[in-house]
Write a structure and sequence with these properties.
With 136 residues, this protein is mainly alpha-helical. The chain has a domain at 29-118. It has five helices and no strands. The radius of gyration is 41 Å and the shape is rod-shaped.
């Protein structure tokens, strides 16, 4: 009976042969150094994948910050452009008011001509009246 009990203990205590066979088969076919290299490659690939995910997240946040900066710059430029337009209109009006003769008044440069000379592009409304004396 002790032989049967020992056999039962031995069979129930060990891992079945069919459970460890793929490992031994792989080690025999591929080789232990190759298995170590495959395992190291897996861990390196896992680390690189996580690092690339993190890098993608950083790039997206940098793109977001760059877009916000560009949008803020555009808004600030539009404010400065409007201020310059108003300033040119005031200068034109002052020139017209200070001119005592018709030729002096005709020598005043319109705000639109100055803006074109400076290379500024001011968006005009399509339905604005064209008989505006300050913006011919």
């Amino acid at each position: 009976m002790s032989d049967e009990a020992d056999l039962a203990k031995h069979v129930s205590g060990e891992t079945p042969w069919w459970a460890t066979a793929p490992i031994w088969l792989a080690a025999g076919i591929v080789g232990v150094p190759s298995l170590i290299a495959i395992g190291a490659g897996y861990f390196v690939a896992h680390y690189v994948t996580n690092a690339l995910t993190q890098l993608t997240t950083y790039n997206q946040s940098e793109i977001y910050l760059t877009n916000e900066h560009i949008n803020d710059s555009k808004r600030n430029f539009e404010v400065v452009l409007k201020f310059m337009d108003d300033d040119l209109r005031a200068q034109y009006q002052a020139c017209l008011n200070s001119g005592q003769t018709a030729p002096e008044r005709a020598a005043c440069v319109s705000p639109r001509a100055r803006e074109e000379e400076y290379g500024l592009v001011v968006k005009r409304k399509k339905n604005s009246p064209s008989n505006d004396p300050l913006n011919p």
